[in-house]
Amino acid sequence: MKRILSKTLAVALVFVLVFSCVGVSASALTGNCTCEHCPSIVIPGLFQSDVRYLDENGNEMLNKDGEPYSAPFFMEGSADIVKLALEEALIPLASLLIKQEDIENRCAEAIADVLGKALLSNIQLDEFGQPVKNIQADKYETSLAGLTAQQRAFVLGQVPLNSYVQEAGLDHLYFLSYLHSGNLMTAVNDLYELIQTAKRETGHDKVNLVPISQGGSVMNALMQLYIDKGLDISDDVNRVCYVVPAADGANILGDIYLHGIIDDPDALYGYMMPSLLGDDQQLLAYLINLILRLFPGADLDNILDTATDSLVEDYLERSTSLWALVPSEQYPGCREKFLMDEDDAFILEQTDWYYNAQVNAGKYILETKEKGVEFFDIVDYNYVSYKIYDSWNETNGDGIIHTGSESFGATTVAVDTALPADYVQANTYCTDPEHHNHIDEARLVDASTGILCESTFYFKGQNHEATARNDVIMRLAVRILTDSSFKDIYSDPAYPQFNYARHSSKASSLYNAWKNYDTSYLSAEDKAEFEAAKAELKAAMDSTCMPTEDFDAAVARFDKITTKIATGEEPVEEEKNILEKFLEMIIKFFNDIIIKLFGDSGFSEM
Q1: Taking the model in full, what pTM does it have?
Q2: Cβ atoms within 10 Å of 4's Cβ, excluding its own
Q3: Which candidate among 116, 184, 332, 556 keeps its CA 20 to 30 Å from the CA of 147?
Q4: Which H or E element spans position 191?
């Protein structure tokens, strides 16, 4: 009897231990967080994912120097590129220069071929939009809490949401890592799965989404995916905080796909190269303009157009992620130009699917808002675009994405161009036209025509590529993601609808390096200036709305006194030497005269 009882107790104990272990395992996989913060998923932009070139064993491919190839293009070394250019383009180029005629288009095709092989061959895609070579983005299938220290550092380096982590925790921040030049549907399906993972791991029933730049097009596709699945995105999403989204693509890409690189003489031989090169390389820029005159004008235009079309046709047209960056207005023309071959059928089906999502995004957002999902938008504007495409000066934007795309329809003219004098606020989406003003003080933007006009914040003069270095933008995003009482542009006067650009990384580095400096050895004059400049910089950093020039002046003042303390001398602004300035002035003068007299003619045609 005792033996039977002992066996029964032993079996019962085993069952208790087994089921208790199962219970622990299940709770470890399923979160039960009761905090007030929904988990947030960052949907990053172009080149913000860690992408690698791997061999068949999953190890990183190494170049001839024994180092991993560098993303995003995984190019060969400069010596190999020069060798390729000499082998394939030297003779056609020499023939063009000697004969002043590109016979049978040989030079244009050779240069296009070299550019394609050098720039894009390693990221080429197959007919299904998948990489031909083993190019993969690191995939993060859990929150930052489950990533390595190196992975966390990478994510927070791309999107500095450190204060969000302090507020909500590493386990409440997720990052969608995807192949930026690959198949959009792969990224969107991964995002859908990551949403379910975040809900399961944290125990929250909804997530916040943070689409950044190219992430705006991924968000468009996500809304369409939910509709196609017969699901309601409002069941999964609490808030969406767009940050400079390419909601309707980028004019720069659509224009280049349709028309190629700009060929207006004033641009091509005048301001294009000086605008692309830095202030310290203007002499080189104007020399390049003169060197271009060695080619006949028509042949140079043809080389640029051939190269552009070849890069798209041979390497880029199968990237549905890049196709999603073509504005809806330009998609039909680009589609007709590049996607009409039989072997483009799969890509065409997906790009047409996305086009439908793109043109209906505004409608989907408004419908989703009615179901309780809150949408916010952060927009950069009034920053000159790259001067390499035809319409660079016809729209406002942040250097890469036009304002109309980022803002879901705000009305603008061009950079530093005010709305017409007789223009009045349209109030298309304003909820209280009698009391609300949605036109900025310089009359550059009417935000009332944007579908999210009551919850869209604008930063004047902010460069797209430096958005993450504007600490006010990052603070605003964190506020949106963590404060449920923050509802719109009227929630906090510290964050008005219209704000300013700033690059705060230098300011914070400078302040942190000197904030505890012992001033007892300084002269009374330097000590007083140091303390005043430090206080001014601290006030600038603490501010959430300060004109760019005032912020920059505070940084410059503290930089000046700390440089004096460190070197013992007043900082002197570096100037170009007299000879370089003289040569630059002379070459620019001749360059301008030639444009005026001869337009796009080469030297032999003058």
Answers
A1: 0.91
A2: 8
A3: 184
A4: helix 184-202
